Predict the structure.
Amino acid sequence: MESMIQSKAWVYYEQGPLTQTLQQTNITLDTQLGPSEVIIEIKAIALNPVDIQIGNIPQWIANWILASGITKPKIPAADFSGIIHKIGSDVTKYKIGDEVFGLNLSIAGNGCLSQYIKLSATMSSLTHKPVNLTHVEAAAMPLAFLTAYTALNSWGGLQRNDKTNDEKILILGASGGVGHVACQIARAMNKNVVGICSTQNIEFVKEMGANEVIDYTVNDIVLTSKQYGPYDVILDCVGGVQLIPHLNSGLLKSNQSIYLTIVGDKTSRDILGGAASYLFTPAMIFRSLKSMTGFGLRYYCINLSATETNTNQMFSMLSSGTIKPIIDSVFQFSTDVKQAYERLDTGRVRGKVVIDFTK
């Protein structure tokens, strides 16, 4: 087999908006593999806001993180689905031709927007693709599912097989990439779900599993959330601090209840969220320290946990049809990647934006 593969990829050399910096090129991939490595031929990838946020990291910080600075082509995108092209000598879980999907989140620009990628076969966020899903559908799920499941299960303590339905969940941004998956997971866990979204997405959020929906365009979010509360878990997929001052006055049910944000206090879509927000938001550090020391309500800004257990749960819930991918739009790999990022950057996406490599 050839020792090098020419792989078409979308890359950027300088930091800035991906809609301006991305360019298509050919990169050379060394096919010499370590014992536990695989090469995957990509069939579809999904876009996420974190792609844009990594691209917007200031140049001097990117130079420091990457060491190679602007001389190294950086490839965005983390969610993928594809076919095993080549395997290392010790790989037994996969064989050539197997359909796989997973998450390869790289702040250093070693992403998946390329025809071929090289990964470790032991990576916990890589697994077989459910046979009931297309590559486009499978690519839409990993980051959104693993983020939502980490929040609801690992941090919120909610269990899939718990048949009690007295626990109530509030989801801010319930129609978005993570929010719509969180609605489905919470419904599968038999929880009472209240979702917050805009008027045009009310019926969609109900279809995803929300028992009640709050329209933020016409309602006072604080007052209306209190009317439907109190909650065992509040999952904020939007950001900001609108509810923070009111957590102990009708929003959180008890000292065991928890407010989780995957974004942080920030409201800009261009800045990295998640636990990285702690680096530049002292108020968030103070809230979490109070939580850990027992002097405040439970508040944490979290990242996803791509453990093998969580990945297996994703495979199981997708294979059984318990949760389903929702595709906002599909774009061609060959020509339309910048347009796909333009769509994502509108902030009005319902479900996921996907790139189809077969088109």
Summary: The mean pLDDT is 91. The first helix runs from residue 18 to 21.
